[in-house]
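Notes on consecutive records. When two proteins share a document, each keeps its own sequence and its own token line. Never mix them. Below: protein one.
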Amino acid sequence: MEAILEKDGDIAEDISGIPISVSGNKWVLPTHDELLASVLIQKLDIHSTIAELMVRRHISLAEAENFLSPSIKNSLPDPSEFMDMDKAAARLALAITKSEKIVIFGDYDVDGATSSALLKRFFRMVGTEVSIYIPDRITEGYGPNINALLDLRKKGADIVVTVDCGTAAAEIFEEAGRSGLDIIVIDHHIGADKNPEICALVNPNRLDEKTKIRHMAAVGMCFVLAVAINRELRKSGWFKERQEPNLLDILDLVALGTICDVVPLTGINRAFVSQGLKIIGQRKNPGLAALSDIAAITEKPTAYHAGFILGPRINAGGRVGKAELGAILLSSDNAEEVLKAAEELNRLNTERRALEAVMLEEAIIQAEAKKDQPVIVLASEGWHQGVIGIICSRIKDSYKKPVAVISLENGHGKASARSIPGVDMGAAIAAAKMAGIIKTGGGHAMAAGFTLEENQIPELIAFLHERLGKRIEEKLQNVQMFLDGAITISGINADFIETLSRMAPFGSGNPEPLFLLKDIQIVKSQIVGANHLRCIITDAFPGQSRTSLKAMAFRKLETPLGRHLLQDVHKPIGLIGQIRQNEWKGSKKIEFIIEDMVTA
């Protein structure tokens, strides 16, 4: 690794000499505009590491200050910018003043649960109680269904607000509308050719929408709706004898849903998460507080805690248990009710992990036999529908190819699909539906879902290979993995961690920085749990500081990386991963999260 050149704070600029990694990845560090980085350093008084990271991530001079100090005030769009937002706000404000019965119809994932809970809490803040309906994943499937809507109407509902679903339900809404039910859709999924004829369709991705703000989660759109309704109520004098709510208090739900729905953490989303994580830390939501306690979160909450600890537990209800548990947890103020929901979600998450382990083992056996195909399509009788999405992501990450996983039951299949950057799986699934190859389907470029008959699987595989094969081959031939810098162990200290934290929150669109930790050796490596490794690493060469550091490799035991971590003890190597600081009972410890490895 002689080609590594030292620069300010042990950060290297030219690391083109890195060999192919043990996982077969080609790691590169993109060049950056040094002049712009210098301007950022001078204007914002920031460390060169942060300036270089911002430039590499194409953050302009005009955006830089708000990126480092994101605020709702500077980032929140005018609600009227979105089509039908004013219609939705006016209708719901009228419903509040007339005491009409409102029902929130939500999806069963975290975005749906947070969206539903946010609106219920907002309506409660302005003096109106509403109810929530979450369909069952297995018996009802995704989105609105006519039986549920007609039943809600029979029980007295005047308005149904669908959140994180509904854009493609034109025919269902037409029938429901004949019953006298008013319907408002708050969604963010790609629009259909025909918009439903309803009171309001608020969706930044409806095909006729003009806004440039496209990438908000449904919960973010629900927050903007709350701002719009609040404005309507203020105009009507509703708050003359009532206290106007502080909407910032529900940003904890916006942050959680935004992180878990993996939308880009840029612009308003970055502000939502930055400010919302502070509210989570204040423990204002009883359900989030109870779940945090059960999950043993004791440190300051971060995007990691929301996405990998809280989110999976809330999702577990929709995957393998009662779909409404997440919404109950997040919307209730009853201490006994939220504790019961938190405990049940934690139990269901343990059950989900056990199911996942068995299904993943079976899926890997199938995937190994199909790993040379452009798209890996897996199917099995009895695979749990609530877990196939997770399995799909795991296989996609392992084989770096688009994947579809199908759960079969009596000849009928329900499936999840995941893709790689530059390969639009959502469009392919939509095309397969148009061609009659599958029964239903839709989604985004990176994720989709569909249903089909078992005898349609061979035709679907052929269709996907024909449509996507060439594009996938092009992408796989030019795969490069991008680093954010290189550093030695001696360069990792509290000041560096504090500097790096200014780039947070991390997530889609602003990933956690990846560094090459160079000139090191493993002095101890051991297996932890079922599939993890813990290493003690230190400087590799005599005369260095011999500083040691703990490093963890999660779910890597049965991989080439895992085998090298166990075998290459006391050899000069480089590790690629993230630098994190954990806080436990007031003590702060730095550790390295291993993603890959290069040999000297």
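Protein two starts on the next line and is unrelated to protein one.
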Amino acid sequence: MFKPAPMVQVNALVLQRDERALLYGLGRAGVVHLSRTAAGPQTAPLEPPDHSQDLACCDELLRRIEAVRRARGVADQLPCEGSASLTLDQVDERLQGIEQAGDELARRRTQLEQQWGQVAVLLDQISGYQDVDLPLEQLGSFAFLHFAVGSLPGKNLEKLRTTSEENVVLLPLRPQGERQPIVAVTSRKGRFAMETTLQQAGFRHEKPPVGEGGDVKTLIEESRVERGRLASELERVRDQQQRAVVEIAPELAQLEYAVRQEQAILQAEQHFPHTETAVLVTGWVPAEQADVLVAQLKHVTGERCVIHLESPDHVPVDQIPVLLRQPGWLRPFGTLVTGYGLPGYRDLEPTLLVAVSYMLMFGIMFGDVGHGAVLAIGGFTAMMVSRDQKKRDYGLLVLMAGISSALFGAVYGSYFGIPSLHYYGLWHDPLHDPVGLMVAAMAVGVLMISLGVVLNIINAFRRGEFLHGVLDKFGIVGVVFYWGSLVLIVKYSTLSELGLAGIVLVMVVVLPLLAMTLKEPLQYVLSKRAGHLPHANNLGMAFIESAIEAFEATLAYLANTISFVRLAAYAMSHAAILMATFAVAEAIADTPGIGDVLYVMIAIFGNLVALILEGVVVAVQVLRLEYYEFFGKFFSGSGLPFRPFSFLGKEKEVS
């Protein structure tokens, strides 16, 4: 629980003809983190192959598959891993068939929709003329009458009637939106005056919507029949598209799996050096799964491979992947840890410590039995209702935070802040003894900071960095300096008494600071003797860097310890909000008629503000203390994540 899963390095030498079979086995097993190996005399003489063109082809195929999904409205669907393997050319051929069939249906649907729209527009145009008993196609052939067919803005019709000559007859038709179709009739002699009046009214000439020998009623009937035929055909095409979506969904998923499988193989092959006939495949596997993996690889290659397992003892820590295994109740806190980063392979894994400290600090700052119960019920409900694992984990986190809040609420005697219930507290309200609460908060800070320094010392020794573990500002001399300073501050508030106090001051403060100042120069000298490139330009710069780091350590210890005063500050803030809420409620409780109602409403509102607003702020502040004041002492977050090789391009759960 306190360290990552043990890893074993796998080195497999296989014939080139068996390389793909071995990679298929690794991909299906999903437990090997492949690592890149440089060509050389200790590995294989030839550099790994370059598959950039084939990988670009994979990217293009995946883009086309996704484009088909979006265009056809196909939902993502993952196939079983037993799908048949396809070459990129086969995928391209089958994808072209899907694209062409879909494009043909789409073109046919677009064509039908356009035709249906044209018929609908025609029906809309001619519907206004169905009550006109005139041969519209022959209106221009009358010797003594002049006809004008068209439309004008509907609001201008009345004005046109008042301004038209007496010899003008207006025949309004059925309105079409904002325009009013009309037929205007006058004598041949009065046609110029009528046209002028029509133009002033915004009239627009329109060609009668019938051909030679036709009539409006016949055209309307034929158009309605055609519209019905087009609607039926359009419905049939839509049904074909819906059936196609159901049919192509599994095929698209199979094609995507085939491409991702080939993509993963090609990317993997670029990791491995080779000879003319053999390939060296390297990676990392959890130690307890190594024997099973070796048996699987020998099976898929027909025993034509040489597999060697090596311990990671002599491998640089930044090359060893980190896999964290945690019980279900710790998984939400593991998310908080990985949000900062991963521990190094040889570092202690702090999730359990984070869980305990997070709950402790959250309860101190947000102690209330009622609020804790609300959080616990909400978290438990989220766990029971949600099917998403992440949401269930967050629900568990809220549940545990609620339990901690309720426990500290019992200590404070806070039950939704109701004043009459403060007497039932195991201690007392945070506002009654702010100094004592601040001292307790800093005591928690001292423990957290000291624990972080101890973890840093242990990690340094586990990595073999003994000088760092002893002389670092967060090493042995650092913890001596920190605790020595605390003891002096507590025991000797003034240094008027010298003697023993002066000796202690030298032993626990001055000497540790001097030791910190020697760290960088010693590292410089040791690096020079070992033939390594020193981290500093010269010995003088190393002394200056150490002196600055010692001064920074003094400020850091002081600032980090004081930072934990926020535990008391937020606890008092939470109590103050509730106290103010009930003070206001009691002040208006005597209002005639509605006093009791206002009292309850204000009490509920104040509790909601404290629960929602302050609850979020406290959760963030606790996380800040974890990341900066605790993790900053020992946790770099630079561990290499364990990403097992698989064909779906996603990290596979490794149990």
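For the record: The two ends are 14 Å apart (CA to CA).
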